[in-house]
UniProtKB/TrEMBL annotation:
This protein's name: Histidine kinase
Pfam families, A to Z: HAMP, HATPase_c, His_kinase
UniProt keywords, alphabetically: Cell membrane, Kinase, Membrane, Phosphoprotein, Transferase, Transmembrane, Transmembrane helix
Domain HAMP: 330-382
GO cellular component labels: plasma membrane
Transmembrane segments: 20-41, 309-333
Primary location class: membrane
Signal peptide from the UniProt entry: none
GO MF term list: phosphorelay sensor kinase activity
Topological type in the membrane: Multi-pass membrane protein
Record organism: Cohnella abietis
Length: 599
């Protein structure tokens, strides 16, 4: 992207460059100032909004906690009110003995407790039931909606079991379905309870429970003018909400929130048609959470007016800058338009033009420098062409004529060993193969060979190695139609196959398999892939193969992979050459790309 912009910039006229530069000098500071001012204003607004949201949620938490603390104090009555404590103690004794007289006593106590619990409901708004669950699961109390079921239906619920375990501690059930009343119609309630014990013996008397209506908390969280309030219990159940949201969405919002203080999270919600921001605050007393949300549109409404005014001022200043930039650019660019056109011709490869301007100022000096540059460029291009052609011819001739004496020595040694171990049964065949190799290697007058000849050379080479090392190399050859009659450079594939045999399969891997695939590409190119299933190489080793000057030059041709890549690049240009892909433990794929030139 940067290169494209830079290229477009180079093609612009000098007048355009002066104009754009002057304009940018005006635009960048103004834009930077405007963006910085906007960011500062947004940050200040959001900080003030967050502080305001904290105050709102803290106040709502305080109101909710005040209700819960009032009920909390009420649950202490069995410990401090002698009437109810005495009644619960008597009920404990009657259930242990239970005679006819005890039955009458129980009825009187039950009536007394019902009357007492009824009177407690007027002490605090929102109480819908007050009752005592004895250890024998008998239930005594009063509810304003219907009769209380006389046996305990709550003992399997987690909050009730927690009350027993808390040993007199205050327990908040959170939002739950009421099951202790007849015809409760799945009414939701919140139970606040304590486990009551005898003071002198520490024996359990029962559980004192106060049920409150969740609707009471609607008065604690009246909806602000531009926001929404959600109250959830310690388990995430929604107790009050002024916007549609379920428990799962609430949990996701809290998990995605950013911690901004103790028990405080900053919230962003994009699930609705308009994006919303706010703060969630968790009460240390109850564990309940209050969420306050407001729309970003309402939050940034006043800021948008300031932004529109700033944009208007910037536009006026920019219009003035455009007029001034055009005037300055035209005055500076006019004397050098002609020289600019000459430079464009040189850029397009025309080195036979010269500037005729004879001015004595800076433009004249630039004209003389331009003429000197054109002369030097012409000489340099000719010299580079000559050197590259000579270098290319010398390298190709040298690479074609190379033959490694070390390989010949090893081959003749193998023939000698075979003659000693056998009665010359296989020596004729080995010599025949070796003669074919030598003929192929020593024919230095060929610049091109058909791919079929190169493949036959590979087959002879592999057959000689199999006899030399007394083991088989499974090599398969697959080619598209016509691929075997395409012209290629000699000694193109052999160094890659040699590298695959000696270095790809040198770890004792039993899978001595090499595949050679010759196919035609979409762009009329020939692709030759040599794949082995050996040890593979690391990424650093792959890079070194194409960069090293002397890696793996001990084979038949003494030619490394870097030399093959350079030969192809010198002959056909940069798009062509070698690519190597390797995975350690799986093998290596070397791909040769050359133009498709049929015979």
């Amino acid at each position: 992207m940067f290169g494209l912009v830079r290229g477009k910039w180079k093609d612009l006229r000098i007048q355009s460059k002066f104009f754009i530069t002057y304009l940018l000098l005006a635009v960048i500071p103004l834009s930077g100032f405007g963006v910085a001012a906007y960011i500062i204003a947004v940050n200040t607004l959001e900080q003030k909004a967050n502080n305001s949201y904290r105050v709102i949620t803290s106040q709502i938490n305080y109101n909710v906690d005040a209700v819960l603390r009032g009920i909390d104090r009420m649950t202490i009555l069995p410990f401090i009110d002698q009437r109810i404590y005495s009644a619960m103690t008597k009920l404990k004794l009657t259930t242990d003995t239970y005679t006819e007289e005890d039955f009458q006593t129980e009825k009187e106590i039950e009536k007394e407790m019902r009357t007492y619990f009824t009177s407690l409901q007027v002490l605090h708004e929102g109480i819908i039931a007050v009752y005592m669950i004895m250890d024998n699961d008998q239930v005594y109390g009063y509810t304003q909606y219907s009769n209380i079921i006389s046996h305990n239906t709550l003992k399997e619920q987690a909050w009730f079991q927690e009350t027993i375990l808390r040993d007199g501690g205050f327990v908040n059930s959170g939002l739950r379905l009421e099951t202790q009343f007849y015809r409760s119609n799945e009414k939701k309630t919140i139970s606040l309870a304590r486990h009551v014990k005898q003071v002198d013996t520490n024996e359990s008397l029962g559980v004192f429970v106060v049920d409150i209506d969740p609707y009471i908390f609607n008065f604690s969280a009246q909806q602000p003018r531009d926001g929404y309030v959600v109250i959830a219990d310690q388990y995430g159940n929604i107790i009050h909400s002024s916007l549609p949201i379920d428990k799962e969405s609430m949990t996701e919002l809290m998990d995605a929130g950013k911690v901004i203080g103790p028990n405080m999270r900053s919230i962003q919600w994009g699930a609705r048609s308009e994006k919303m921001v706010g703060v969630a605050s968790t009460s240390e007393y109850s564990g309940w959470m209050t969420l306050y949300l407001t729309s970003k549109k309402a939050l940034y409404q006043d800021l948008s007016h300031i932004s529109n005014l700033a944009i208007g001022i910037i536009v006026v200043i920019l219009l003035f800058s455009v007029i001034l930039a055009g005037f300055v650019a035209r005055g500076v660019a006019s004397p050098i338009k002609r020289l600019s056109r000459l430079m464009k011709k040189v850029q397009n490869g025309d080195f036979h033009i010269f500037s005729t301007m004879k001015q004595k100022d800076e433009i004249g000096l630039l004209s003389d420098s331009f003429n000197s540059m054109v002369i030097e460029l012409t000489q340099l291009v000719e010299r580079i062409k000559s050197e590259e052609e000579s270098k290319r011819k010398a390298e190709i001739d040298a690479l074609r004529a190379q033959i490694n004496p070390h390989f010949i020595y090893n081959t003749l040694s193998a023939i000698k060993m075979m003659a000693m171990m056998q009665n010359a049964n296989d020596i004729a065949k080995v010599l025949e193969i070796f003669i074919h190799l030598m003929k192929y290697c020593t024919r230095s007058d060929r610049k091109w060979v058909v791919l079929q000849d190169e493949i036959e050379f590979i087959k002879d080479y592999v057959a000689l190695l199999e006899r030399r090392y007394m083991k088989q190399f499974a090599i398969t050859y697959t080619s598209d139609a016509g691929a075997e009659r395409v012209w290629v450079i000699p000694f193109l594939i052999q160094p890659i196959v040699e590298n695959a045999i000696f270095h790809g399969l040198d770890s004792g891997n039993s899978n001595h398999k090499i595949e050679i695939l010759m196919r035609r590409g979409d762009a009329c190119d020939l692709f030759i892939e040599v794949r082995d299933y050996g040890t593979g190489m690391s990424e650093e080793k792959v890079k070194s193969l194409l960069n090293a000057n002397d890696e793996y030059k001990k084979g038949l041709s003494g030619t490394g992979l870097k030399n093959i890549h350079e030969r192809i690049a010198l002959e056909f240009g940069k798009p062509y050459g070698l690519t190597i892909k390797s995975v350690i433990g799986e093998g290596t794929i070397v791909t040769i790309r050359v133009p498709w030139k049929p015979e």
